[in-house]
Specification:
Chain B: InterPro entries: ATPase_NBD (IPR043129), DDR_dom (IPR030994), DDR_swiveling (IPR040916), DDRA (IPR009191), DDRA_swiveling_dom_sf (IPR028975), NA-bd_OB-fold (IPR012340). Chain B: It holds the Pfam family DDR_swiveling. Chain B: This is Diol dehydratase reactivase subunit alpha. Chain A: InterPro entries: B12-dep_deHydtase_bsu (IPR010254), Dehydtase/Dehydtase_re (IPR003208). The complex is a heterodimer. Chain A is built from three helices and five strands, in the order E-H-E-H-E-E-E-H. Chain A is α/β, with parallel strands linked by helices. Chain A has a domain of 49 residues: B12-dependent dehydatase associated subunit (Rossmann fold, 3-Layer(aba) Sandwich), CATH 3.40.50.10150. A five-stranded mixed beta sheet of chain A has the order 2-1-3-4-5. The longest helix of chain A has 14 residues. By secondary structure, chain B is of the alpha+beta class. The longest helix of chain B is centred in the last third of the chain and has 27 residues. Classes of the chains: A alpha/beta, B alpha+beta. At the A-B interface, helix 1 and helix 3 of A face helix 3 of B.
Chain lengths: 181, 619
């Protein structure tokens, strides 16, 4: 699992870019420019996260994945060294059914966008709905939203939102899906 | 005082001008109106359009239709133009040999040469073999990477990969020794296996160096001079790409061939000359210059140009109900262009820019059934309908109401179908000559050039690109216009417009779904306008100017729909500035802009005729 939802391979890829993986000393706050993915810790989201990550990695945009608590905010991150390695899977399985109000993909995505230095966040709710948000957009008007099956494309598009490249594919109209079920 | 309405029936718009005319020829202009022309100019189908425009002009003036003494219409000679475009080069690849598309994110960097092998066949390769791995979209990127890593560990030299899905970077990131990977190859199953191939990916921001060079390909595959000649079109087609794949198949043959486009015969009043279409627009126009004035044009039967002119003739005959052989082509404008064409035999939907020649032809038909039209208008309007003077004379009279103009003056009417020019010598009122010409090629040709050169396949979108400026959506809240200025929005822009080039139409933004940047679209738009309008403006002025010398003209007034364009008047002003004459967009009656010239001229002509008549009576 490790290495899948990690964006550290990025920058090696399409050449030229220097491998940016400085060893950050314990306790130093990282301000790496990354897309933040906030995800309901649910084992069913494993595949979805992998696809999201693959989409962003292919576009060459760094990202990190964080767990979301029930009220839709991110967990205390403060995890310095091991951020974005092993979250999102394997624990919190009991959480799936009863996430609280405000814990939908849109809210998660917006919170993630606020936390991202690139102003772009992705939210994944317990049922695998995916939403891409931008920090400067109104909270209830995400850039894009879709389901788990769109995860790869959503990953591409979250990255393209950062890079400034037209979106891939034709995303579902926004009014078709607003909130997690 | 009597109330009259001048009506100009144009190819696409009908314009009216209402005015009070005193017995001494004094004119008080009241209002103007504009509407679409119904039917072909100069036919009875125009009646509904005329009736509507007259009613609108009178309503705007606040006058009762019953008070109208006369409606003045111009003598409308239908001038119809036709367009055709043919490619004169073609790139054909038999036995699929190249993948030259430009995926957004190829993986790895460098050049890899080896034999193509399906991903499933990788374990069967012997250590030491140089291979290029070909994987379809069913195989996950991790499996592809793992497979290649395993093969390399066994000593197989995997030098590159060609994959179907969009995951080249993902694969390259997972390889222990990164190799160039080209992705998004839609027809990956048609890549021939067991053949020597080369994969090249350039660093971000650079373009490939080896496979876009004929000798590079010759070096990679060890080709002899004859084979190099055959492969040259491949190299040409790959220029400017960030990634490419070339597979060498034994019977593979790529040819760039010139299509026998045929010869165009231009028949002038005194001479007759033929010119090969594939000589290009410059040569064709040079031939035209030698034979003009043109009486007719013909294309070699059974060739492209023959077909082109036959189509134009057919359309004209249909529109004017004339027999086909009575249609005389009286002007042609040839324009060099290029058309993105799908490469036959490509594997990823590659396009090559093929040279083409666009030809606009203009036919001046016999005089339309004006008397019949006037009679029908008389019935429909219940007033007297007078057929006024020749269109060009009337346009000149109207244009002269532009403040700051004087004779000798020329007008340039840039319309949709034709470019017209007329010149009035000093003292035209005393019966001096008015010379006029109608030339093929105008707005419609510009639209079709934009459409084909950008590969839009949408006339509507091309029309909008022609008419409105461009911008790039840079974030959800701001756009950058083509001149570099930035505009902000309160509401977030739609996701489908994000990062795209948009046309800023009257009705809002319209995203252009092509990979072209702002600069490229702008350049195509401006060069299309240059090639058609500037060429034709000079060609037209040259023909009407006294002694063919544009310097003899005092003033040039630009009229017609294109005069309202946001850049065409500037282009023309720039082009004629070297002749030291005054040129600018007309402002009819000091308030109508480049519109309403003929309608205004009809009223002015009517008024001066009345005054002359009154004088005769008095004297």
């Amino acid at each position: 699992m490790a290495g899948v939802i990690r964006s550290d391979g990025v920058g090696v890829g399409s050449g030229g870019v220097v491998r940016t993986r400085p060893e950050v000393p314990e306790g130093v706050v990282r301000i790496r420019p990354e897309v933040v993915v906030l995800c309901r810790p649910d084992p069913r989201n494993r595949r979805c996260l992998r696809e999201l990550g693959a989409g962003m990695e292919e576009e060459g945009v760094p990202f990190r994945v964080e767990d979301a608590t029930e009220d839709g905010t991110e967990l205390e991150v403060g995890d310095g060294a091991d951020d974005g390695t092993d979250h999102g899977v394997g624990h919190g399985a009991d959480d799936g059914a009863g996430h609280g109000t405000g814990g939908g993909a849109v809210e998660l995505a917006f919170a993630a966008a606020q936390a991202s230095h690139l102003d772009v966040g992705v939210g994944v709710d317990a049922t695998g709905n995916v939403c891409v948000h931008h920090a400067k957009l109104p909270p209830d008007a995400p850039a894009l939203s879709g389901t788990a099956s769109d995860a790869r494309v959503m990953g591409h598009n979250a990255a393209r939102l950062v890079v400034g490249v037209p979106f891939k594919g034709t995303p579902a109209p926004l009014d078709e899906w607003k909130e997690g079920p | 005082m009597s109330l009259v309405v001048g009506v100009d029936i144009g190819n696409s718009t009908t314009e009216a001008c209402a005015a009070d005319v005193g017995a001494d020829g004094e004119v008080t202009y009241l209002s103007a109106a504009l509407g679409r022309t119904t039917g072909v100019k100069g036919t009875t189908a125009n009646v509904p359009g005329v009736v509507e425009v007259v009613a609108r002009a009178l309503a705007a003036a606040g006058r009762d239709p019953a008070d109208v003494q006369a409606v003045l219409v111009n003598e409308a000679t239908p001038v119809i133009s036709g367009l055709a475009m043919e490619t004169i080069t073609e790139t054909v690849i038999t036995e699929s040999t190249m993948i030259g598309h430009n995926p957004d994110t190829p993986g790895g960097v460098g050049l890899g040469v080896g034999t193509t092998v399906a991903f499933a066949g990788l374990p069967d390769c012997a250590p030491g073999d140089a291979v290029i791995c070909v994987a379809d979209a069913d195989v996950d990127f991790e499996d592809v990477a793992a497979g290649i890593n395993a093969a390399i560990a066994r000593g197989v030299r995997v030098t590159g990969a060609v994959v179907q899905a969009d995951d080249a970077t993902l694969i390259a990131n997972r390889l222990r020794e990164p190799v160039p990977v080209v992705d998004e190859v839609t027809l990956v199953h048609r890549v021939p296996l067991g053949m020597p191939a080369a994969v090249e990916v350039a660093e971000p921001g650079r373009t490939i160096r080896t496979l876009s060079n004929s000798y590079g390909i010759a070096t990679v595959f060890g080709l002899d001079p004859e084979q190099t000649r055959m492969i040259a079109p491949v190299a040409r087609a790959l220029v400017g790409n960030r990634s490419a794949v070339v597979v060498r198949t034994p019977s593979g043959d790529v040819t760039g061939r010139r299509i026998p486009a045929g010869a165009l015969t231009l028949i002038g009043e005194r001479a007759k000359r033929s010119v090969e279409m594939d000589a290009g627009a410059l040569e064709i126009m040079e031939t035209w210059r030698r034979v003009r004035p043109l009486v007719d044009a013909d294309g070699e039967p059974g060739t492209h140009v023959g077909g082109m002119l036959a189509r134009v003739r057919g359309t004209m005959a249909e529109l004017t109900a004339m027999p086909r052989d009575a249609v005389r082509i009286q002007d042609v404008l040839a324009v060099d262009t290029f058309v993105p064409q799908r490469v036959t035999g490509g594997l990823a939907g590659e396009f090559a820019l093929e040279n083409a020649v666009a030809l606009a032809a203009m036919v001046r038909t016999s005089k339309g059934p004006m008397e019949l039209l006037a009679a029908r208008l008389r019935e429909a309007l219940g007033t007297d309908v007078l057929i006024g003077g020749v269109e060009a004379d009337m346009a000149l009279l109207g244009a002269l109401t532009t403040p700051g103009t004087a004779r000798p003056m020329a007008i340039l009417d840039l319309g949709g179908g034709s470019t017209d020019a007329a010149v009035a010598d000093a003292g035209v009122a005393e019966g001096a000559q008015v010379r006029s010409v109608h030339l093929a090629g105008a707005g419609d040709l510009v639209t079709s050039l934009i459409d084909s050169e950008l590969g839009l396949d949408s006339t509507d979108l091309a029309e909008e690109i022609k008419k409105f400026p461009l911008a790039k959506v840079e974030s959800f809240f701001h756009i950058r216009m083509e001149d570099g200025t930035v505009r902000f929005f309160d509401e977030a822009l739609p996701a489908e417009a994000f990062a795209r080039v948009v046309v800023l139409t009257d009705a809002g933004m319209r995203p252009i779904r092509t990979g072209h940047g702002v600069e490229r679209i702008r350049q195509v738009r401006r060069s299309a306008k240059q090639r058609v309008f500037v060429t034709n403006a000079l060609r037209a002025l040259e023909q009407v100017a006294p002694g063919g010398n544009i310097r003899q003209l005092g003033f040039v007034v630009v009229l017609g729909g294109a005069a309202l364009d946001f850049e065409i008047p500037d282009m023309i002003a720039e082009a004629v500035s070297e002749f030291g004459i005054v040129s600018g967009t007309g402002n009819v009656r000091g308030c109508e802009g480049p519109r309403n010239a003929v309608a205004t001229g009809l009223v002015a002509g009517h008024a001066s005729a009345r005054a002359a008549h009154a004088e005769v009576r008095c004297g």
